[in-house]
Fold these 2 entries.
Entry 1:
Amino acid sequence: LFETAKELEKEGYKPQLNLPFENANLFLLLEGERRKLVREKEVFRLVGKKETFEKGELLSLVEVTPNLFVTNVALRPLLQDFLLPTVAYVGGASEITYFAEISKLYEIFEISMPVIFPRNSVLLLEKRISRLLEKSGLILEDCFVSEKVLLEKVLGKLGKTPNELFFEFEKNLNSDFEALKTQLTEIDFVLKDVSEKAFEKILHQLSLLSQKAESSFRTKNENIVSQVSKVSSAIFPDFSAQERKLGILTFYNKYGLDLCEKILPELEPFKFEIQVFELKNQ
């Protein structure tokens, strides 16, 4: 599991299982309690108990009383597919990554893994959001970032933002100060600490000025800020896919209960990227 998770991370995917290395991926039911099994070198221990088990003891126990063992999130799909073989599983991006993580376990336990098929992913684009995109000079692909990044992109088209101006200024200021400090230290070593403390105060005042400038800049362009916020909240709310954050009831309320019936015939099941549907009538 750890090796597969590392491979997926290298490919740019976020692993769904964050299980400790010592996790045995099983629970044991004893005395009416479900306790997690963890590895401790050559033995296994129940969390919260001092009692330990040899590997052979657990194997004997599972032969006699398999009902005492409960699988965790990593092994549960394997148990399900062993008892009730599955031809195919239709899932979203997170579920597919999850199955990719546990795929090698199917090989280890010699269980047939179901075909993993990506479900359709839909983005509903309202007419008012389309207009705001056009007005802001954005295209849909720009919007799959945080609201902050999207806003910086839009405001950046107006010229350098206060953040950019102060970043460049402080970059030059730092190098100039280092040269000045070196020269002052040559005059008197005591001036080294004095100059560093003075520079800290300068940077603090610059930080306050930067915050005020950024606030004034946003106030001046508050219409743009509002528009970008609406676009981000509609397309990529809270840095997540629209379908994960905005309930279908919101769209039913605006566009009618037959909305899905209108969309379903247009869906392409073998198109794995997000399918965008523009909602024209409101």
Note: The first strand starts at residue 23 and ends at 30.
Entry 2:
Amino acid sequence: MTTSGKFSFANATNDRLPKLALKSRGATEAVLRSGPWVETDATSFVAGAWGGNFARRDFERSTVQCGTAGKATEQGWIFSPPSHTLEWLYIVEEADGVWLSNSLAFLMSELDDGADIRYDGYFFDLLRFYRRGLTENRKYLRTSKGRAVQLWTYDSLLVQSDLSLIQIRRPAPNTPTNFTSYRKLLSTEAKKVTENACHAARRFRTKLE
């Protein structure tokens, strides 16, 4: 177990989990269960890449992020989802902690919970979430045991010691003014994400051949 200020981090890698699955349950102590390809160090975990410096773990300040990452800070735990709206962090708030995962199936297994077979609206709920993108901030799915699973997308999330959740706005990229600037924006961000994924400090680096 390691610490960042008053916030501690304990990781248990499980080779039986999918290689990039992760789940964290935290207050002042965050317990992380992850697959073998999740990058972890003393105060952070990374299951993806972003348009910033891998060594600095500055993912919450990046305009582009692929995959999920998190870290301990002096203010609490920061969890950062992908910078698109097709994947989510799944969150369950309970009295003794906050449960987060990038896998709904993994989270439900850990909570011994699941879908409510009496409810037939899941497909339309998810379809609405996809269609509304960032215009609908509070997205929830119900479970068989009456829990509310929040689907968190795009912006980063700060979990404080009192278990309150604070939204951290992801910086927006410069608005392209024409196709040339749009193409430059895409190529620049793609290059930065690729460099991050290939960083020498990673245990599992992307190899470009």
Note: Helices lie at 104-110, 122-132, 179-197.
